[in-house]
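Checked the freezer inventory, then went back to the computational side. Two predictions to log before the end of the day. The first one is the construct we discussed on Monday; recording sequence and tokens without edits.
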Amino acid sequence: MEQIEFFAQTTDLCKTFAGKKAVNRVNITIRRGDIYGFIGENGAGKTTFMRMLCGLASPTSGTIRLFESADLEKQRKRTGAVIENPALYPSMTAAQNLEVYRVLMGIPDKTVVSELLDFVGLGNAGKKKTKDFSLGMKQRLMIAVSLIGNPEFLILDEPMNGLDPMGIKETRDLLLNLNKEKNLTIVVSSHILDELSRMATCYGVIHKGNLIAEFSSQELENRCRRTIKIVVDNPSKAEYLLKTTVNANFDVMADGAIFLYDHFDEAAYINQTLVSNGLAVSVLAPGGQDLEGYFMDLMGGKNQ
């Protein structure tokens, strides 16, 4: 049987509320094995888009395919989701909550409850009521609920929202384990860009309902890469000197500009080497930006 590569695909997906497009002609493809980081400011359309993927909202227009199929009712049985605030029973323990969902979903294997509690790190929660859980514990229990049906595809809306640094790390480690150990494909929205960058394999950026960019983690790394930009009157000679004197990692652009990707603390020595070998250095300056700066620039260019 041919292996399915695309777990979610949307074509010109739209959702309109009171004449305003919350999601506007969004085309997204989520591939097998991805951890897809979905980024956007509050009100950008992230949750609306994810609700349509899950069947909690109907598109105004456009199409959704799950597992390369248009039979969404059938294919959604292969997905799990945590959207906004799913219901937990505050007077029940973690095990009792999972047991309720196991019965509701018709899962016959009772051992799934203890297995999932152990996997999300709640195996020792014992008789503690859910109302007394920390926010991080509640988030992990919600994720456990989403895993009861043994899904292949997981949709998580802001699972790190409001967590302290320890809770964020625990959630991130859990998602990485789900991706690697259970082979789950995951789409996760978050505004905590640094945390997304530690696990996402690709990204989609939504702004005012429009998908404005999609790129892989490698493309993002290259775009945010720290550099030293060098402009000289003889790029070929500079290239030779950078190779032979400091064994530098660099690229030479079509216009002759050189972007150096290492030896950042040796800028003065590199400048001296170039000048002492007869080169006129017109630019030697640091470049690149951090992840947050890159996304702010990306969003800033779309404010019109």
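The second is the one RB wanted added to the comparison set:
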Amino acid sequence: MIFRDARERLVHFRGDFPAKPLDARRIAGLLDAPGCMRRQVIDAASVPMKDLAPLIGCREPRQSSYALQRGVRFEQSVTSNAMSFLLPLVREQLALDVREVREQDLSTVQVRTQFPDLDRDALTDHRVRTTRDSVAQMLAGDQRAINLLRHPYLVLTLGDMPTYLEPDLLAYAASGTLAPIEIKSFPCIDGIADPAKTAEAARQTAVYMVALCRLVENLGQPSSRIASQGLLVMTRDFTLEASGSLLDLRPQVRRLERVLANFPHVTQLAAQIPTAVSLPALPSRDTSQTERTAASAQAREAVGALPMRFGDGCTGCPLLDFCRGQAQREESVAQLGTQAANMCGDVSTVSHALALTAGTRTPTTAAEKAVAEELRRAAIAVQLAGAAA
């Protein structure tokens, strides 16, 4: 099969599977397994992980409908009544002199209400352009500029592909800096929030920060116009009252910048996809068990044909179960951890390493000689420890 360009190859790989644009959470997930071509191809092809993972036998991350509804109610309470819950946090935590609210809502629902005749592409262009104009006005020092921009639309290039991101809020004061605000409904109990959830929120906010930095630089403004910290808004204890905490985003931003800089060009990704594989249509509730089994087999074949980089960071990836099973079947050294895989180099399987240790295989390459010597010393250490016991 001949493809006109690399993007067409990615579309063919996705096949009849639904497409879902990447969001900040998905891009932040690149930090878990940087350099994994399998993850990069699936992301570049806009394949929704929540649908793909269970189809190939992975555990499906679930969020209760109650949690989703609570999140919606909390965001509404924080941003309603002239943002009376949010303003004290903006003043105290971000030290922004926001005395009165001058807000603009660029959410899809709000913009579509104002401009019902816009199609999807025109709606996207309007939100991106208005976000750019609003940020430019903020940074120009206009005392009448918007100081709370809701659901702005930021563009971040992944490889050479534009992705569109939607932070909850951007806060600004003429005498201060521009800062992202992320609203989450998990509780901050007695001033302490769940560390894992806070870290996840920080990574997601860092994605917004990188996109915001790119926008500000394109406007000819220095990156110092953006705060180095973001504001995380959570529920106070078990209520729907707002509590805030500052997120130091600098470490996450630095890591993310490196990952984005090394993300392959679409032509490099397309070259890693075998021509014969593609994902099936996503089975519906009415799909028979036979058809569902066939779809699962086709999806497993397509994903399995992509090169993977298995390691410690994969624990946060939705494809963990599938890739771990493949690593075990192939006796990959990577299943022992990233450090073991790095130490073994070209010696990629456990049987290969054990053969070098037992002397049934003569080391020829530098990697084989290093592994053989290291494992020989380890075997002697184990023997000595047994004798001492």
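For RB: The chain has three domains: 6-56+265-309, 65-252, 330-389. The two ends are 64 Å apart (CA to CA). Let me know if you want it refolded.
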